[in-house]
Amino acid sequence: MSVDSAHEDVPALIRLTDRACTALRANEMIVFDWAVLGLCCGCAGQPWLRTAPRSVTRRYRGFRPLDTDPPDSAVAHPRAYPYLVGRAIAVDCRRRFGLRRFSCDLPPDVGLAGLSSGAIRDGGP
User: Fold this and answer.
1) pTM for the full predicted model
2) What is the mean pLDDT for each group of 10 consecutive residues in the chain (125 residues)?
């Protein structure tokens, strides 16, 4: 059963801001990747955002395509995908000291924190 089975049939809509579109290079995609936070099991983790060359994302069959605006600009790791379905997510980019930093508006309790007892006590994510 997925993390958010109530929204399993509703795809995620990822919208890149104008700054993110400008900063994203023509040969890159946004990747909602999975950071393993627990040594006991691979499912204990947190989604995180990075960029990757399109050629790399196409070679890894596990990445799930996402509905994006603009089209074909983001994919998700299989473990991160359930945390994204049914959500409208904005991706932005800020430059600092010449470096790009992509961020999104996912709530801070997504992932491992969302599975904690606090999330269960408060009714979930």
Assistant:
1) 0.74
2) 48 90 96 77 71 93 92 92 89 95 83 49 44
